[in-house]
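User: My collaborator and I are trying to settle a disagreement about how two of our proteins should look. Neither of us wants to argue from intuition anymore, so we agreed to look at predicted structures for both before our next call. Could you fold the first one, then the second, and keep them clearly separated?

Assistant: That sounds like a sensible way to settle it. I'll keep them separate. The first protein:
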Amino acid sequence: MDARIEQLQRWVSSLCGAWQLEAASIAPASGDASFRRYFRIASPGLDHGTAILMDAPPDKEDCAPFVHAAEVLHVGGVTVPRIHAADLAQGFLLLEDFGSVTYLEVLDERTAPALYSEASAALVKLQVGAPAGRFAPYDAALLEREIDLFIPWYVECHLGLSLSATEEQAFAQARRRLVDCALAQPVVTVHRDYHSRNLMLLPGDRNPGVLDFQDAVAGPITYDLVSLLRDAYIAWDEEQMLDWCIRHWERAKKAGLPVDSDFGAFYRDFEWMGLQRHLKVLGIFARLCHRDGKPGYLKDCPRVMGYAQAVARRYVDLAPLAALLDRIEGVEHRVGHTF
């Protein structure tokens, strides 16, 4: 038992209210890619008989953005956990328990149409109802910091490779194009990690339960959709993914969201936004392994790289980046893509 759990138990014991928390029942619920940890606790005073405790060491994590985003999203009609109690100074939250069944665990060809439709509807609700002005902007500096994780962590640290001067220039040019594309899109509230491991299967008509929203920002309208449909943890064939993308675009237009009236233009933004995200994710997964001792994410890197290569190969402006990705992955350069 570490010192944080002892501190957490003391906090639980100090709480007043009708939850009837049982401090001795605290047990691990799930981990996180950050320094946050989650525990489940028996609570006969709550509807489901349990609650979730978030442990976010204040020297490493700040609970305030989580609390703020939960309030904004809840008011916007998004199903997020209720916060029963909070101690921001100690880094503890007592949350509604959404159970342990993620979308990822139940997605298959039979369940996917309904689950993705519900996730699409919830995303539209988020973008319509949660004011983007309540969040910091997803600006050029942040977009660039994210994409800049790719070279030092994935290419150099993980693969043990280095880029030539020409390749560095090609990456810099692609980086600029991707960031410019993102900044040119209409601005909405962006969850920033809207995918199958952060969407929970709930009873009744509350699906999905949305988690891990503390990094929400005001940014590109395609960002969360590409997180959902080009998920790092599960992939669908291109025809199916395209069908879901079109359905979401139509739903967004009907809701009055400022999506491009030309689906081709919207889809190009979707693809380029996804490329920025997937390069970032590759850097993050490599960093989680080599810096944080969490190698489990590496198994999903081939899927994420596959998304990135496919998009880069489809656009002439991104041909040099496609060649770079092919080279570091040991793929023969396509004609016209050599340096």
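The second protein, kept apart from the first:
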Amino acid sequence: MIPLSILDLVPIVRDGTARDALMRSLDLARHAEQLGYRRFWVAEHHNMTGIASAATSVVIGHLAAGTSTIRVGAGGIMLPNHSPIVVAEQFGTLEALHPGRIDLGLGRAPGTDQRTWRALRRDPNAAEEFPRDVQELQALLGPVRAGQPIQAVPGGGCNVPIWILGSSTFGAQLAAALGLPYAFASHFAPRDLDDALDAYRKGFTRSKQLAKPYAMVGVNVFAAETDEEARRLFTSAQQQFVDLVRGNPGPLRPPIDDIEKYWLPNEKARASGMLEFAVVGSPETVRKGLERIVRATQANELMLVSAIHDHAARLRSYEIAMEVTRASRLLENVEPVARRSVPD
């Protein structure tokens, strides 16, 4: 069966608190573990009043401590915001506490706006150093060499699996050159998906971490008992993306009956474009949608995103996604990947 994973943005809902969001995220991680999801990732965003995962490594520790088998990690850490040695120390510590369960996905974007970027006190040109910083981080997490003057403690020798995240061909080419697994952010930026996957697979170079290409694709999934119910749940995400287009992101709004009353035509076009990779509907509709995506992308793994306001409905959405994946002949018969090529 094609592996399913979860990217949780730890959404703060309207009239909710960050603590509520963090507790719900842990509950979802435990639920995902029981259902058989492979990994549970959270992402670094700053100055976003609707997202509670800014201190990403702290949130990962919270989630890993409350679960026992599911892999937990970053999807991702925005490396230009940090020095490689600090990231190595943080994830080395997480790996020491939760051995064999930590993933480190790395992104090149700042994960925030320009004003907040300045508040982070980072060099505006730091993103240009992303390939070099990734390699430095690899070295810090790799085997400690005799006489090595600078070590990450904990971190050195822990070999936490590194992923490259991206929404363009840049990240795909870097992941291919370094022989790393690649995750494409098609859950909000689907435009370059085909080109990125093609560049990654054609340019892939075998590495110590990975024998052949391994691509994960982000998919928005809103599943419910009926198509109508799922479409209503989806309006929370649609409002969220419209608010982003308006430059006014905030807490996740409850669903509404008629999304057409919320957006203007130009806002609808932009938000719908970002949400193109969304599977919305009943179990049968979701099964067909996931099969279509796997057939089109030949993804090795799917990372599901469900920005659903009601927590119980969100849990049920992930249950349905796993149920239909297990029941699908296409998803069951995805060509297996050699074990040494599957990121742990």
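Some points you might bring to the call about the second protein. The longest strand covers residues 215-223. The CA atoms of residues 75 and 328 lie 27 Å apart.
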